[in-house]
Structure prediction request, 330 residues.
Amino acid sequence: MSAGREEDRAERGRANREASGWAILLQEEPDDQAVRAEFSAWLDANPVHGAAWAETQRISHVIRTAPIASPNRWDRRSPIILPFVGKGRRHGAGIAALAAAACLAIVAGPSLLLDLRADVSTGTGEIQSVHLADGSTMLVAPQSAVAFDVSKGGQSEVRLIKGRAWFEVAPDPDHPFRVAAADTTTTVLGTGFEVSRIDDRLASVAVKHGHVRVSCDAQPRLTEGLTAGDTLSLRCDDASAVRSSIDPTQIAAWTDSQIVASDRPVMEVIDALKPWHSGVILTFGEGFAKRRVTGVYDAHHPARALQALAKAQDITVRNLTPWITVVSAE
Prediction:
């Protein structure tokens, strides 16, 4: 990267931080004409300031309209650094309000009920290993929840309530192993595979080795067979199925705390980092659709991964508080 581009990026970073500070100060002192005059002078001093202010306004809209996020378990001891703007003013009330709003978004919401229904649930960056009675092993990904019954009619059944999980199933032809997610059921006799619950209607399955059968609960005829390297995204309500192939070694890379992408949309990588990030990652902008990425990212360090994406893909990452990160792409 050229020195000029580095300087431009640094200047935009300073302008973004100053714009965030002005947003807080103007909220605290909306009728202070001196503050208004200082802000106008700052805005006119550099075209970069105007662009930074416009982006800050868009971010404020994203935060106001974003849905409540799922709960994260985190241990953040880092203090909030209060920005300074204008004539040495220090503003704490506005940033405290932002922090309180962020905390509310993180710890509230309907996902609190999921943990009560689950036999196993995980927090931010947490992977749990579960050994089932039939000899199978399950790894539950960060911010995921599962319930299971290994004695139902002599068959093993796991219900994926949220997130994703990896299964290494012990072969037993007489007692098939089943995983329910959204409206789908994956049936196996002995294999290694991953199941993800994307939403209430969409589930995806990826097979590392062996063979599985994926079907819709209400429409048994909608059945797909998968073998090593096959992936399937299945939505039963509209009978849509999308198959693809992938290097089996890349499947469930999160079990090794890695995010692996091979010519994938950058948004997929950002979404994969969210369960590892102790806070809320908000995204906006029309530029994500045209950006694709190839690389391996350390899930234990999502902030570094986001910065790497920012440099490679020319996207902007802003840490508004220790709990709110906004990623934008124009």
Observations:
- Residues 3-28 form the longest helix (26 residues).
- The domain at 3-110+257-328 is CATH 3.55.50.30 (Phage tail protein beta-alpha-beta fold).
- The first strand starts at residue 84 and ends at 85.
